[in-house]
Q: What sequence folds into this?
């Protein structure tokens, strides 16, 4: 019996970040994402750890930021609230509170990695 051998692939930093950003979107787990990209889940976990260490090197301390409330929109069930998030890389991200937690996490991962 011959053993099936996988070809070793090279991933760019942008590819790694794009794949990592899929974790948590619509409930996707590390296992789901690794299967979708035909890769070992341990490799994906290693990427997450590496990217976390890189972002911590450039981290600035967390700070409280002002909160701005939008004008009420009669078409929305809840009032629109903008959330401003200070990221570890020094950038600020302003998001609507109407976004799902998964989308907010994805935006944070993308902006921190950029």
A:
């Amino acid at each position: 019996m011959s053993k099936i051998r996988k070809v070793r692939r090279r991933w760019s930093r942008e590819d790694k970040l794009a794949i990592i950003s899929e974790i948590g979107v619509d409930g996707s787990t590390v296992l789901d994402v690794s299967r979708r990209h035909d890769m070992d889940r341990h490799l994906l976990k290693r990427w997450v750890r590496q990217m976390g260490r890189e972002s911590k090197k450039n981290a600035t301390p967390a700070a409280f930021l002002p909160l701005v409330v939008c004008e009420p929109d009669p078409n929305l069930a809840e009032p629109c609230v903008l959330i401003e998030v200070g990221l570890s890389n020094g950038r600020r991200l302003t998001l609507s509170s109407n976004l799902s937690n998964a989308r907010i996490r994805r935006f944070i991962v993308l902006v921190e990695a950029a």
Remarks:
- The first strand starts at residue 68 and ends at 69.
